[in-house]
Design brief:
This protein has nine helices and seven strands; from the N terminus they run αβααβααβββααββαα. It is of the alpha/beta class. It has one domain. Helix 1 crosses helix 5 and helix 8 runs antiparallel to helix 9.
Length: 221
């Protein structure tokens, strides 16, 4: 239980109503809650129920990157455990990532895709759901954020001369969705897809913070 709010498991069918706007001022701008893999699943289940209400049952797919995806992807998670056991068997202390404080996702192209489908104010509505989840569970406002969007590359289609997001475009291709979907909510209304391994490694090489070297090794296995 987090902040007095009941955690809902994979079979969840309901959640508290969305927080009212007058209470949003109490949300801390920074999230200090460390998400384990299990806790992250529960938080995302809460988010999926807010999405079900806000988007009137329209399924939402987000493209994500970073530590949350390393925790959520079942094969990468298992590889991390096996790698840690191997090092321990050799008397080596090589810690693995066990938690993350946020979920990094690509907001700009989510907005473009869903508004092209006729969903008005898709970005604002998604952020409302994210803030409502933070309010319900006493998380910081940036528990799910797109801060990295400003640093992500854009490309131009040589045929149409129109700009496009190469990371997002590659990530929503059928093969990547099949191999790198890291979360599907129990109500089937929220799916999170990791960026392609190529882009995941590239982004981690640019950032190269505490857990990134180990994450890169797992992605290259």
């Amino acid at each position: 239980m987090l902040g007095g709010a009941p955690w809902l498991g994979p079979g969840v069918t309901h959640a508290p109503p969305l927080a009212h706007s007058h209470s949003e001022s109490t949300i801390s701008p920074r999230n200090n809650v460390e998400f384990s893999r299990e806790l992250l699943y529960n938080v995302l289940e809460h988010l999926s129920i807010a999405i079900a209400s806000e988007f009137a049952g329209t399924p939402i797919r987000l493209v994500a990157h970073g530590g949350a995806c390393m925790l959520l992807h079942p094969i990468l998670h298992e590889l991390a455990i096996r790698k840690e056991r191997y090092h321990l068997s050799r008397g080596e202390n090589v810690p693995r990532r066990r938690t993350t404080r946020d979920v990094d996702y690509i907001h700009r192209s989510f907005v473009a895709e869903y508004e092209s489908r006729g969903i008005i104010n898709a970005g604002e509505r998604l952020r409302k759901c994210i803030r409502a989840t933070a309010q319900q569970l006493n998380l910081g406002a940036d528990w799910m954020n797109s801060d990295a969007d400003v640093a992500l590359p854009m490309s131009t289609d040589p045929t149409t001369n129109t700009p496009f997001d190469p990371i997002y475009t590659a990530s929503v291709k059928e093969n990547n969705i099949r191999l790198y979907t890291v979360f599907t909510s129990s109500n089937r209304l929220l799916t999170i897809v990791n960026v392609t391994p190529f882009w995941a490694v590239a982004l981690k090489l640019v950032r190269y913070a505490k857990w990134d070297p180990g994450d890169i090794c797992l992605l290259l296995l």
